[in-house]
């Protein structure tokens, strides 16, 4: 966040404005009068397919660290006054409040699949979907993708109204669109505007190529629909740009070119199959501006493209012969002028796909065909692992164990069979407290840690814990052979 500027996501009625979406569509841009367009057709198509999502996170007991208020003048590090922990951080169990929020979603198929933002559903214990006709359904999460801020949820229903999916690549700057969502819990709200820009980067997500629109959006619009004049879904609203926290200018939507691939992967694999070049870089014109501000003169012969600042060894970019200082100008013959455009193209690829890269090396144009890889450096499709891979049974530690060992949470290994834990020497009785720096209080916590790690670059569980004797131990457990 920069001075006097705020970029917010507008899904939930919370302090953090979880963004939402401009939804705009026209009846083939039918003229009504001089300079006017009839948007009623698009609104009629969109409204039945845009839903209100209620988010509930139940109250929980959690452990927090607090400072001893008498540490300092009255600290007693040696326990002379019967308090050996005085002056140190103390653990307290607190009851978190129940949290409720709301956002929007778009029905994309009549059998109950709904697309929304990841930040609308992240951490939810309960999700309730309300249709435009006031029917209510409980929803389950099919899959989420934090990198693109998209999520796929499902309700158990048939014959639901759905919104046809359009091609966001065909959108033109200046084209009319409408945003449909539920700002401030005002159900079925439609606002209109134009496409202000395409392929915007806000540096909010790992993968982004936003459609920018001036259709009014506010908190609660997150996950709503951006619709073209043909009544087709072209984007999922996700961010608002504001100096006040409320709408004051522009909203940003995730294009359907990215959404389609994420939805397909979540349905088929349970996780997004992301193909990467394993490079770091920025828009070339930004790099040129940076160098000029430092008094350096640079000349690439062009001003648009993706400047490469780093190439990782063993990645697809290195295989293509890319080097620091090169500039990517095209992919499969499609011109690339900025990083967001490159991300959008790669977001539609999977590990193992081949692409033809056009790039400049010392002002000389080159083309290379390269096989894209996953984040782990190979061409395999990635699958999420579950607890079975560990080859062990677990149970939450008892109150007696907590008291005896001076701990407040953990999972005890009750049985070790053949699996990853046995391979690394973990034994029955060891208590797992943290995995990859995340506290492990329940079996669900451990399951999530295994799932997240299995699709990460390292694919390793860094386990911290304690033996029944009080001895603490640290293990690194690779999930790949």
Can you walk me through this structure?
The model is unreliable at 1-7, 10-34 and 72-87 (pLDDT under 50). The protein has nine helices and 27 strands. Helix content is 15%, strand content 35%. The chain is of the alpha+beta class and 481 residues long. The strands form five sheets. The protein has a six-stranded antiparallel barrel with strand order 10-11-12-15-14-13. Strands 2-5-6-9-8-7 form a six-stranded antiparallel barrel. Strands 16, 17, 18, 19, 20 and 21 form a six-stranded antiparallel sheet that branches.
List the helices and strands and how they pair.
Layout: E1 6-9, H1 40-46, E2 50-57, E3 61-67, E4 89-95, E5 99-107, E6 113-116, H2 118-121, E7 126-130, E8 136-145, E9 150-155, E10 176-181, E11 189-200, E12 210-213, E13 225-227, E14 233-242, E15 250-255, H3 256-269, E16 279-283, H4 284-293, E17 306-311, H5 316-319, E18 327-331, E19 334-335, H6 339-346, E20 354-361, E21 364-371, E22 392-396, H7 399-405, E23 411-416, H8 420-423, E24 431-435, E25 438-439, H9 443-454, E26 460-466, E27 472-478
Antiparallel strand pairs: 1-14, 2-5, 2-7, 3-4, 5-6, 6-9, 7-8, 8-9, 10-11, 10-13, 11-12, 12-15, 13-14, 14-15, 16-17, 17-18, 18-19, 18-20, 20-21, 22-23, 23-24, 24-25, 24-26, 26-27
Sum this structure up briefly.
The chain is 15% helix and 35% strand. It has 481 residues and is an alpha+beta fold.
What key attributes describe this structure?
six-stranded antiparallel beta barrel, six-stranded antiparallel β-barrel, 27 strands, 481 residues, alpha+beta, 9 helices, disordered N terminus
């Amino acid at each position: 966040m920069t001075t006097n500027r705020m970029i917010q996501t507008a899904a939930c009625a919370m302090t953090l404005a979880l963004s939402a979406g401009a939804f705009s569509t026209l009846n083939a841009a039918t003229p009504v009068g001089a300079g006017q367009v009839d948007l009623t057709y698009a609104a009629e198509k969109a409204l039945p397919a845009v839903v209100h999502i209620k988010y509930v996170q139940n109250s929980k007991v959690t452990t927090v660290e607090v400072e001893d208020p008498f540490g300092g003048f009255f600290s007693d590090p040696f326990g002379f006054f019967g308090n050996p922990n005085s002056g140190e951080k103390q653990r307290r169990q607190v009851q978190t409040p129940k949290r409720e929020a709301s956002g929007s979603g778009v029905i994309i198929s009549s059998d109950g699949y709904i697309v929304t933002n990841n930040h609308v559903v992240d951490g939810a214990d309960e999700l309730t979907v309300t249709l435009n006709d006031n029917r209510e359904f409980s929803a389950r999460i099919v899959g989420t993708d934090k990198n693109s801020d998209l999520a796929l949820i499902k309700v158990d229903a048939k014959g639901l109204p759905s919104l046809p999916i359009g091609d966001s690549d065909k959108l033109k700057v200046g084209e009319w669109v409408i945003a449909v969502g539920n700002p401030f819990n005002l159900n079925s709200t439609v606002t209109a505007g134009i496409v202000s820009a395409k392929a915007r980067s806000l540096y909010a997500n790992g993968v982004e190529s936003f459609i920018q629109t001036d259709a009014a959006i506010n908190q609660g619009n997150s996950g709503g629909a951006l619709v073209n004049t043909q009544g087709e879904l072209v984007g999922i609203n996700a961010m608002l740009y504001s100096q006040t926290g409320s709408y004051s200018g522009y909203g940003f939507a995730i294009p359907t070119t990215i959404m389609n691939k994420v939805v397909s992967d979540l349905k088929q694999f349970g996780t997004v199959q992301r193909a990467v070049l394993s490079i770091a870089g920025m828009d070339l014109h930004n790099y040129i501006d940076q160098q000029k501000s430092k008094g350096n003169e640079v000349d690439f012969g062009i001003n648009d493209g993706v400047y490469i600042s780093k190439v990782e060894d063993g990645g697809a970019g290195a295989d293509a012969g890319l080097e620091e200082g090169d500039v990517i100008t095209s992919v499969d013959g499609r011109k690339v002028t900025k990083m967001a455009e490159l991300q959008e193209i790669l977001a539609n690829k999977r590990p193992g796909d081949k692409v033809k890269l056009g790039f400049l090396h010392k002002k000389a144009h080159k083309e290379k065909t390269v096989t894209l890889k996953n984040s782990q450096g190979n061409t395999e499709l990635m699958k999420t692992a579950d607890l079975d891979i560990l080859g062990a049974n677990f149970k939450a530690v008892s109150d007696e164990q907590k008291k005896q060992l001076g701990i407040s949470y953990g999972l005890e290994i009750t049985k070790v069979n053949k699996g990853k834990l046995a391979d690394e020497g973990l034994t029955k009785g060891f208590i797992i407290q943290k995995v990859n720096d995340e506290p492990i209080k329940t079996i669900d916590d451990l399951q999530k840690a295994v799932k997240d790690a299995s699709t990460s670059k390292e694919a390793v569980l860094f386990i911290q814990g304690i033996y029944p004797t009080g001895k603490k131990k640290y293990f690194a457990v690779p999930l790949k052979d």
